[in-house]
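Entry 14. Structure prediction run on the chain below.
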Amino acid sequence: MRVKGAKGKSSRGVWLALLLIAIALGLWLMPIAPQEIERDYSTSTYLTLQRALTPSSNAVPVALFDVMLGVVILLLIVRIVMRVRQVRQSPRGKPWRRTGRGISWVALDAAAIAAVLAIWFSLAWGGNYRRAPLRERLDFDRARVTREAAIEMTRTSVRELNRLHPIAHSRPWPALETLPVALGGAFADVQHAIGQPSLAVAGRPKSTVMQAWFRWAAIDGMTDPFFLETLVNTDALPIEQPFIVSHEWSHLAGFAHEAEANFLAWVICQRADSQAQYSAWLSLYFHLAGGLATSDRRAIDADLQDGPRRDMREIIARYQRSAPRVRVVAWRMYDQYLKANRVTEGIASYDAVVTLILGTKFSNDWIPAVKTTNRLAPATR
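Output returned:
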């Protein structure tokens, strides 16, 4: 009787695991139009969830992502131990067959756990990878993206860096934990400006047990897609942190594409104080300069003053303290992750922020113009 019950229980477990895997694959493969995702998920269901989940995770001082990671690892260990015991106690079959059966069970357990995480990921945040592009909301014209426009914007960034450096460095830079106060109003303003029907809540910047990985892989931050938290590399320089936090908040607002998060982070910082603006121009300068011809870049670089140059050297030095081999592996993994989530450019999507900025029409205070036909634009401000 006990043997039959065990077999029945095992069979139910197999079917449950297969069902979870099928649901996860179905969510990933299901053909849904970007406009439907935009209307029914990104600007409605997701924002409702985010406004409930992020304040809850903000109330916890530790990263819930770390807790989940520990639980998943512990669960895997427990399942492996249980399967080993089952194999040893099984009286039937040759040893190599029992071993093969045990390995199959462990693989199925791991796949089921991965499926649960994939379902959670898709429903809690990952669906935003399939939304309509942000440029469809904006007054965007690819014809504005020219070599001359890139050169002029790079010159503008140099002028702004030279102007803002003494102002930004005239007082202590804010601590990481105080950035929600410094940037929160700007985050709300920009969401209003681009027509968000409901405002996302800012995340509390948190450190993580993955700090060593962040350092070795040169990862600045991460948005936890399960509890909708903001995780930051604590090695990031104070001059970098305003932009990094704004970037992760843009993800929290439902903009999964890296170029869009960079674009919104830059706009958020423009609406904040001089230190945030300086942080944003530093980040943008690296993207702009990296896309210019060497001769053009050298001519523009000649106008950079010593202050911004020192800050850039410090940023580069921090990057160089990462582990090259780990960095290559990490970014290859992330490149594949982005492509698997329908970001065809992979990690090159970070630099696509230049196209988005150059092609968008802005007001004098760097607020992006939205299309007048944008149904999501607010009627009043």
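The first helix runs from residue 2 to 29.
Filed with the rest of this week's runs.
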